[in-house]
Amino acid sequence: MDAISKVKAWIGAITDVGIMLLGLAIVATVLVGGALPFFGGVVGNLVALVKDLGSNGLVGLIVLGIIIWVFSKRSAG
Q1: Taking a C-beta distance cutoff of 8 angstroms, is the pair 27, 44 a contact?
Q2: Coil, strand, or helix at residue 27?
Q3: 25 neighbors 33 (Cβ within 8 angstroms)
Q4: Which conformational region is residue 33 in: left (phi greater than 0), alpha (psi within -120 to 50 degrees), or beta?
Q5: Alpha-carbon separation of residue 39 from 7, 13, 29, 55, 66 (angstroms)
Q6: DSSP designation for 77
Q7: Residue 42: Cβ within 10 Å count
Q8: How many domains does the chain have?
Q9: Range of the domain at 36
Q10: Which of 7, 27, 37, 74 has the fewest CB atoms within 10 Å, measured from its CB?
């Protein structure tokens, strides 16, 4: 069971770093513009995701709720 908890901690740490990089990409793209080499398409992809969820009505709202629930369960520190 110790190995499983180590794997879970490792995956959680990678997920936390990914979420932090996503936040950095959004802020950098908004401040500098969409011409960043590494972060260029993040805001466009998020806008497309929101548009797709919005066009699916109730199903999109349910999926958005699940996504928020999953990310709210993660600890920030």
Answers
A1: no
A2: helix
A3: no
A4: left
A5: 28, 21, 7, 26, 25
A6: -
A7: 20
A8: 1
A9: 2-72
A10: 37
Q: Is 45 among the domain residues?
A: yes
Query: Using alpha carbons only, what angle is made at residue 60 by residues 55 and 61, rounded to the nearest 5 degrees?
Result: 120
Give the confidence band of 40 by pLDDT, cuts at 50, 70, 90.
low
In the predicted model, what is the mean pLDDT of the chain?
Answer: 78
- Nearby residues of 41 by Cβ (< 8 Å), 6 or more positions away: 34
Q: Which residue has the higher pLDDT, 17 or 77?
A: 17
CA distance 44 to 50: 10
Cα dihedral 15/17/19/23 (nearest 10)? -170
Which residue type sits at 75?
S
Any domain includes 21: yes
Token pair of 23, please? 């936040």
The pair of three-digit structure tokens given for residue 57, joined into one six-digit string: 């009505």
